[in-house]
């Protein structure tokens, strides 16, 4: 049975922010309801007759396969939106998914090269949500980064709205930010290339290639992103004095089911 979605205060902030900022970063800890807050944005845009649809959500496989689809089914408010996962193992399965009419399509990062090859310059998605956007941190100009981010970089300029979602924007240090931010502003804030970014804010050891931020780096980088990013911490908005336990049902691959069955038998 579906429920009516009642947003929390921090979710209202997220929805309002992405409404006002067509290309931005949402840095919010896991469990803060980023998915449903973005679903509310989709709902509002569709009600207004937005020409930006269909939207594409790029996410890790379990999230692309299950989370966005379940979120659309969980709340009465979002059930009018058609969510279509493009996560088939074969090209034929993915082609079949694309033939289904959808408002929101979801795909895992591993299939990005295939999707970009399929559409080329006829890219139909005017909204892109990069869920767990740190997967894009290795993007570099001239195809020097990862293949998946490079494939997405070829069509980024064809999108009107771009939203990066993550709870940990710089897990490997501040240098993780340039690749993600390029998809938001094409180098306007942090430098036109990763090389320029490093020269301005980092010291690179010529022998070990170890990267260390300059003393002024953190403050200046965050200031440069202040008009296109918001950061929300779970402890500022939700009670975290005691652990919270949630039941989450997942669809396990057959291989995983067999391993669990074998372990149970051995025990």
Structural overview:
- It is a single chain.
- This protein is an alpha/beta fold.
- The chain has one domain: Tandem AAA-ATPase domain (Rossmann fold, 3-Layer(aba) Sandwich), CATH 3.40.50.10810.
- Helices cover 39% and strands 15% of the residues.
- It contains 11 helices and 9 strands.
- The strands form 2 sheets. It has a 7-stranded parallel sheet with strand order 3-4-2-5-6-1-9, with helices on both faces.
Describe the structure in brief.
This protein is an alpha/beta fold and 267 residues long.
Which terms summarize this structure?
267 residues; alpha/beta; Rossmann fold; seven-stranded parallel β-sheet; two-stranded antiparallel sheet; 9 strands; 39% helix
Could you tell me the number of beta strands? Answer: 9
Largest sheet: 7 strands, parallel
| CATH architect. name | 3-Layer(aba) Sandwich
List the strand order in the largest sheet. 3-4-2-5-6-1-9
CATH superfamily: Tandem AAA-ATPase domain
Radius of gyration over all CA atoms, rounded: 20 Å
Would you identify the regions where 5 or more consecutive residues have pLDDT less than 50?
none
Determine the structural class based on helices, strands and strand pairing.
alpha/beta
Order of helices and strands, N to C? HEHEHEHEHEHEHHEEHEHH
β-strand amount: 5-15%
Q: What's the CATH first level?
A: Alpha Beta
Count of alpha/pi helices: 11
Task: From the 3D structure, determine the CATH topology.
Answer: Rossmann fold
Q: What overall geometry do the principal axes of the alpha carbons give? A: globular
What is the helix fraction of residues, given as a range?
25-40%
Number of domains: 1
Q: Determine the mean pLDDT.
A: 92
- Gap between N and C termini, in Å? 37 Å
């Amino acid at each position: 049975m579906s429920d009516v979605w009642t947003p929390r205060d921090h979710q209202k902030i997220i929805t309002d922010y992405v409404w006002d900022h067509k290309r931005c970063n949402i840095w919010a800890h896991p469990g803060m309801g980023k998915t449903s807050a973005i679903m509310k944005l989709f709902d509002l845009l569709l009600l207004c007759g937005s020409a930006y649809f269909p939207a594409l959500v790029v996410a890790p496989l379990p999230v692309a396969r299950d989370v966005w689809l379940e979120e659309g089914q969980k709340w009465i408010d979002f059930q009018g939106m058609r969510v279509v996962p493009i996560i088939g193992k074969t090209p034929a399965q993915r082609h079949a998914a694309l033939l289904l009419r959808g408002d929101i399509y979801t795909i895992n990062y591993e299939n990005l090269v295939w999707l970009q090859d399929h559409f080329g310059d006829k890219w139909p998605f005017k909204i892109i949500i990069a869920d767990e956007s740190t997967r894009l941190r290795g993007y570099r100009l001239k195809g020097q980064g990862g293949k998946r981010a490079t494939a997405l970089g070829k069509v980024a300029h064809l999108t009107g709205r771009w939203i990066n979602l993550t709870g940990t924007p710089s897990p490997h240090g501040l240098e993780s930010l340039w690749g993600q931010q390029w998809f938001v502003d094409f180098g306007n804030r942090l430098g036109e290339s990763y090389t320029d970014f490093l020269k301005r804010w980092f010291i690179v050891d010529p022998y070990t290639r170890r990267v260390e931020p300059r003393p002024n780096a953190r403050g200046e980088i965050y200031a440069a992103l202040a008009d296109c990013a918001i950061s929300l911490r779970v402890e500022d908005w939700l009670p975290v004095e005691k652990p919270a336990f949630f039941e989450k049902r997942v669809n396990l691959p057959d291989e995983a089911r067999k391993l669990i069955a074998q372990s149970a038998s051995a025990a």
